[in-house]
Amino acid sequence: MIDNEQQHKQETTSANLEHFSYDNVIVKNFAIATMFWGIAGMVVGLVVALQLANPIFNFDTSWLTFGRLRPLHTNAVIFAFVGNGMFAGIYYSLPRLVKARMYSDLLGKIHFWGWQLIILSALITLPLGFTQGKEYAELEWPIDIAIAVIWVVFGLNMIMTLVKRRERHLYVAIWFYLATFVTVAVLHIVNSLSLPLSLFNSYSVFAGVQDALVQWWYGHNAVAFFLTTPYLGLMYYFVPKAANRPVYSYRLSIIHFWSLIFIYIWAGPHHLLYTALPDWAQSLGTVFSVMLIAPSWGGMLNGLLTLRGVWDKVRTEPVLKFMVVALTAYGMATFEGPMLSFKNVNAITHYTDWTIAHVHVGALGWNGFLTFGMLYWLFPKMYRTKLHSLKLANVHFWLGTLGIVFYVVPMYWAGLTQSLMWKEFTPEGFLKYPNFLETVTQIVPMYMLRAVGGLLYVVGALVGVYNYYMTAKSGNLLEEEKASAPALQGSHNVKRWHEWIEARPIQMTIFSFVAISIGGLVEFLPTYFVEENTPTIATVKPYTPLELKGRDIYIREGCYLCHSQMIRPFRSETERYGDYSKSGEFVYDHPFQWGSKRTGPDLARLGGKYPDSWHYNHMLDPGSMSPGSIMPSYPWLLEDDISVDDVPAQISLMRNLGVPYEEGYEDKAVADLDKQAEEITESLINDGADTAPRKEIVALIAYLQRLGIDAGKASNLPLK
Prior knowledge:
Radius of gyration: 27 Å
Number of helices: 28
CATH architecture of the domain at 307-483: Up-down Bundle
Membrane topology: Multi-pass membrane protein
Enzyme class: translocase
Helix content: 55-70%
Strand content: under 5%
Cofactor: heme b; heme; Cu(2+)
Organism: Flammeovirga aprica JL-4
Binding site for Cu cation: 220, 270-271
Number of strands: 4
């Protein structure tokens, strides 16, 4: 009787099963794109590293200079390598977690090809100098719109898959996927708000302090919600799969998720400590950055403790090796981040190569190694075969690990060297190294070591790509993976309060949006609506038409990547550069140009320090003015003409952004431009530099000579 009942129950269950399949083709496509763009982005990064070691690697070519290739490198690694890796992992794990095929194969294909076209557009436009001049958000407005559209396609496909799922509970990895979709959409749209002047030229609607706050709210949280939360989701899926163990603590994962997404969004201002940002915003950024260590380490420990009982496998299985180092790098980076948000630590590390080391621990260790480990697990599964070579996988692991060490250790050392030399005074009270170039030449050997580390990492990645290829070649792709599961039945019996959210994708999405919105609104709205946060300075006037053109060239060439325009209130900086920077100086800067790294000196008080001819010769041959300089030369600036056809439209656009040009000024703006250009040209000719008024070099000189003049307290110490 009992046997008959069990047989009847099994037959009933079998009859209720729904049969479907998982699409491995989309996963394969994203995996291949991950490898291709990963190698491309890393090679560009290696070229950039070589350029800092020796300017000869700029090749005196406009589209190969450091200022144009560095944004290409960061965009390729973040959005092409990590982005495609993230999508590969999500398109594999999400259907299996909810026991349903992705909602739409068509949306998946649109997502894949749309994302690759966006990356291709970045590859074309950034070297050509089409940039908004905002770190990690350089792409111009048509591409920004395309990113938003494709991101919505991805989110729609994901959410609709959750709606038609067959598994009631939403596993923790899915929470991180949803938070990623919601937050990146908000960050991207707000930070990309701009008014276009032409197809590939636009200006941020925010200016100065407000633009800086929005940019680093975006910049910090692009790291948080593009490089961290989706990869935590992948960690929660692939580490248990690779270890064949359940997640260590479900309760810890709940605390980890909600505290992380709520706290992370507040931390952006710690990139702007000691700047013209209001003190209250800086303090908020510091407080929440320090709090971040708790949820971050909670996630790391949850991942590592999942491996308890299987640590013996770490010695023999490359997948686990990569994942253990990835989690360790995540822990290191998320410990270091809060430490760098302390003002006394930030005073030492900010604007130095320490920050470069910090971000590469995360990028190479956390994102890179987790991606490689995931692919080593995926390829044998999808191609129904064994990994081609465990030995090559181990070679890849050790080359990558050595590459990280050779990269970050010299950069930490370089960062400390820079900061100590910038701040050192003689017993008589003078700067010990008044010539900034002395602090640059001292660290060139460390730049060379960094390039060696980058080369090791790239070679390791190439070994990995070969191993993936040979693995795929030895098997056959299982394009349609058959599966079956009972349909989702009835309503969910909620036993714990958090299950009300976790079992409902729409509510989860809404609550995630609320959690990430609070911090941004609290920090941004007061700086935008309360005038005391950005007081104006009467002597600060709008840029002239020629200076606007020069500023466009400055942004196009990526000068902000090596030069800051923000003097902090330290004696070492005011002695070297002049009076510290005030928020009112930047009210007409669309976008702001404070920078985040000083490979060259700060330029906030550059105006009037040198004659026009100095700048002319410096751009033609930096070494002639500053022997030993690693700055590239810009001969095309002496040859190319500026266009004045769009000057009236540019003045009108700036007025729409709040810059107080008088009505009708458009009609005489070109005449004013020509008048100022003639004055600079005459000065250059008198000093033996023959040029024409409408050359780009003349416009750039006009902008450089304007910097700091309106502040009224510029130091007379020359920059070297």
